[in-house]
Amino acid sequence: MRLGIDLGGTKIEIVALDDDGTVLVRERVPTPAGDYAGTIRAICGLATGVEARLGRSGTVGIATPGALSTKADVLKNSNSTVLNGKPLKRDLEAALGRPVRMENDANCLALSEAVDGAAAGERVVFGVILGTGVGGGLVIDQKVVTGRNRIAGEWGHNPLPWPRDDERPGRACYCGKSGCIETFLSGAGLSSDYHARTGQKLAAHDIAEAAARGDAVASAARAAYQDRLARGLASVINIVDPDAVVLGGGLSNIDALYDGLLAQVARYAFSDLLETRTVRAQHGDSSGVRGAAWLWPVQKSG
Fold first, then answer.
1. pLDDT tier at 68 (50, 70, 90 boundaries)?
2. How many domains does the chain have?
3. Measured at the alpha carbon of residue 47, what is the angle toward residues 43 and 53, in degrees to the nearest 5?
4. Inside any domain, residue 243
5. In this structure, are 62 and 163 located in the same domain?
């Protein structure tokens, strides 16, 4: 049995998977806001509680915002700022009394979809989170590729490719630079584009709904979003050339986003024929927690 835990800003979710991927138990609790010690206790309480209920112990994988720093083995780049600079992996291993594997949530999404999701059977998979932020993860042969600096897949903090005049120099990003892909493709980025066109503030999902009803301005904002997404994905494909790109996160649920997306990406990719599949995450919001569980692969006998 393997336990996957998704540590989010508002909730902590656990899933227990059997070796064939069957969900045995799923639970969630609120994340103790701004309380690091409370977060450790909540994670341990979920793990030990599930094990007691099932009468079995399991491996533990954690999907986190941010990533482990190579400098001091502490968490970095987390939008749950109470975790930054903390030795989360070490503290959880001490509290649980066993090894813990930990990767950021985008890596876990990519792994989940590569193992038994929308990209099952594909060798090279790039997973994308389009939500509050824009993340990415790279999986090859069902193994997460983290890179020397543990930032592999962080396409959201590259500049928007082939920017148009009205996209320069771009909005300021929390990372300290301007014009990052995240500032265009996050939910806030879509909302900002709509605000620039109308002077009105509207949430990303409301813009998508208005576009679906035929609102011309919302449709234009959605079309611009799709074109920017296509440019961003093409730049990734030009470097990695994955077999499949899997989209997750809240904005991946915009159905119209997929209409003509492959053709848009093909316009920018450096290839005469684009065979990369671009698909929606099969496991949806569960991809992160399932991917955390799959950080411990099934051991094959023989």
1. confident
2. 2
3. 145
4. yes
5. no
Residue 299 confidence class, pLDDT cut points 50, 70, 90: low
Which domain does 172 fall in, by range? Answer: 118-281
- What pLDDT is attached to residue 302? 41
Q: Is residue 111 part of a domain?
A: no
Confidence of residue 67 (pLDDT cuts 50, 70, 90): confident
Would 220 be classed as within a structural domain? yes
Q: What is the pLDDT of residues 35-50, one digit of tens each?
A: 999 999 999 999 999 9
**Tens digits of residue pLDDT in 230-274:** 999 999 999 999 999 999 999 999 999 999 999 999 999 999 999
